[in-house]
Description:
156 residues, alpha+beta, five-stranded antiparallel sheet, 5 helices
Amino acid sequence: MFTFTQLKKSTTRFALVAVTVGALAACSAVYRNHGYTPTPDELNEITVGVDTRDSVIEAVGAPSSGGVLDESGLYYVATRMRHYGPRAPQIVSRELVAISFNQAGTVKNVERFGLEDGRVVTLQRRVTTSSVESSTFLRQLLGNLGNFNPAAALGQ
Length: 156
């Protein structure tokens, strides 16, 4: 027959094993896929100089994004990210398929780029700062005292 001490020890061991297994499971990597790129077989169906924008979309599907101008090109982007515990997500792989068109509207070139082909572009946040941020509420309130005109408030 179990005594209270033996029951307490077995419960403590079970809880310790459960916490350890839970902690290890929480630290496993989680992969997420974003976007879509056509397979090489789908890209082989595209004929340079013959296919148009509509026939490309019909063959491989709608793109993830397009060029800045309507006629500039189609871009298919796929990214695989790894989330590991509390760390920031890391990009494991990125693939980009760029299909460009000439002035006649037919396919000019089909290119495939990977993460190793790219370069890091630092984005600059250009935000105009307002003068309100530099002064406190009390300073704004006291600064407006001299600008008050009672005649203008009464409509005279």
